[in-house]
Amino acid sequence: MATNEEESVSLVQALDKKSGFNLETGIYHSLVHLSEDDMIPTQPNLDTATYVLSQFPPLDQAESRVALIDSTTHERLTYAQLDWSTRALAAGFYHGLGVRKGDVVFVSSPNPLLYPIICLAVLSVGAVLTTANPLNTAAEIAKQVQDSGTKLAIAAPEEMHKLVPTKVPTLVTSYSKEYDNALTIPELAENSEQLEIPEAKPVQSDKAAILYSSGTSKGVVLTHSNFTSIMKLLKWSVNVSKSQNDIFLCFVPMFHIYGLVFFGLGMFCSGTTTVIMQRFDFQNMLKAIQNYKINNFPAVPSVILRLVKYPRGAYDLSSLRRVGSGAAPLSKEVADGFREKFPWVELRPGYGLTESSGGATFFVSNNQAMARSALSGRLIPCFSAKVVDVETGMTLPPYKQGELWLKSPTIMKEYLGNDEATAATFASDGWLKTGDLCYIDRDGYLYIVDRIKELIKHNGYQVAPAELEAILLSHPHILDAAVIPVEDEESGQIPMAYVVKASGSDLNEDQVIQFVAEQVAPYKKIRRVSFISAIPRSAAGKILRRQLSQSNQGDLSKL
C-alpha cells in the first residue's frame, strides 16, 4: 500500500509544468509560488481593517504620501489623514451610534472620497458591509435592506429618498439642504474621539460583507479571511507588475467587488496614490488621465472599446503604462485594437467574480498578455481550477471546453439565507461552480467562452453570444453590440443582434448579417438586427441581456 509520501511524489510527477494540469486528479494548479513575504495571512484573529491599516506607510511617510485625490474637487487625503478619519469614524459608529459586531451597514453612493473611509470604519467595528448601486430603485433597495438585515444605512443626499420608506436610520455622505437634520459622515467623524472599541474584533471566519452580484438578487457572503486573502494577492500583483509608484485612476464603482477590492480596500496595502472619479464619464476620464498623469487603471471591456473607437489627439494619454480589464470577457478584436492604438500601454485582462472576491486569473507580464489577446491570464497564487464537462461531470484536459470550477481562500462562504442556491453552486467537495464556459490551453491560460446559461441553442448547436459580439465590434461602423437568443419554432433559438452604429453611418440590417455570415459557420449566423442608441449595461460593464430580451417585443427606444 502506498504511503502518503509516495502518493505526494506521484501527484507531483503527474503535474504538467506548462499548464499546471494534474493528469491524475484533473485539477489545474497555479504555476506561481509565493515567497514567504507574500504568503496569505493565516492568523485566526486578523480582521480586514486591522490588516489594511497595518499596511499603511510608516508615520514619517504617511503624513506626506497622498492616498486619495478627488478628480472633481482636487481635494487630497494623505495616508495619515486616511488613518485618522477611519479611526475617528469607527469610534463614532461604535460609541456614538451603537454599531456592534455583526450589525449590517448599508451604503448607497457614487464614489466620494469618503467611500474607502466608510468601508474601513464599518469593518473596524466588526460590522458587516453591504453596498448597492445608487441607480437601484427604491423597491430594489428596500429588498436588499430587508434581505441583508440592515441596521444602519449611509447614502448620498440624492439617494436618501429611496431609503425613507425602509425606516432604517440613515446618515448622509455630505450636507443636503433637503435633509438638513440628517447627521453627515464628516460630522460624525469630526465630533468623535478616537476611543478604544472594547468589543472583541471579528475573526477570519466572520462575515465581512454581503454583496449582491450583478444579474442576481443573491447576497454573496464574504468573510474577513476572504478579504485578507484577496488583499494580499492584490498587493502581490502590484509588486510583481512593478506598479507600486503608479498613479491609479478609479472610475469603477466601489459598490461592486471590482472597485471595492481595488480602491475601497486593497490599493492602500501597497501605498499607492489613487485619483477617484465620483461617477464615470468618458470625457472626464480622459481629462483626468491628462491632468493627473495617470499611469494605471482597472477598466471594463466597454471602456476599452470606447478608447479604441475614440479619435486620437484630443487628450494627452502618454502617461498611461498599464490598463487592466475585468468584470466581463475582453474580445481578441478589442484587445488587438487597443494594443495597436496604444502600443506603449500594457493591457492585462483578468478574470474574477463576486463569489471569488474578484480574483482568479491574472497576467504576470505584458509579454504574456500581448501573445495571447483573447485570454484572461493564468491562475493567480493559491487558486486551483477544474474544467468540468457539463453533461458528464468529468474533468477535462487542456483545450476541452467545460464549466470552470474554482477553489481558493478567497471563495465566498455562502449565499445569504439561500441554502438551495448555495448547494447548487458548490460541489460536494467544496469547488465553486462559476457557470462560465471555458477552456485552458497547454500553457495554463484561461479562455472564457461565455456564460453557460447565455449560450444560444440553435438546431442542437451551441452559439456563444460573446463570439458574435466580438465580430460585430470589429466592424468600423459599429460602436457597441449585444447578441441575445430569440425563440424560433423551427430551430429552437436564433441569434439576434442589437447594434449601436457610428454617427452618420448608413449601415443596415442586411449588411450586418452579411458581415457576420462571412466569418462564422452557418449555424452561428445573425438572423435579425435591431439598431439601438445604447446597449444596456451594468455598472461593471456587463451586458444586461435580460433587459434586451424583455424589450424584444416592446419599445426599444426606452432602453
TrEMBL record:
Residues 467-542 form the AMP-binding enzyme C-terminal domain. One of its GO terms (molecular function) is CoA-ligase activity. Keywords: Ligase, Membrane, Transmembrane, Transmembrane helix. Coiled coil: none annotated. PANTHER family: 4-COUMARATE--COA LIGASE, LONG-CHAIN-FATTY-ACID--COA LIGASE. Belongs to the ATP-dependent AMP-binding enzyme family. This is 4-coumarate--CoA ligase.
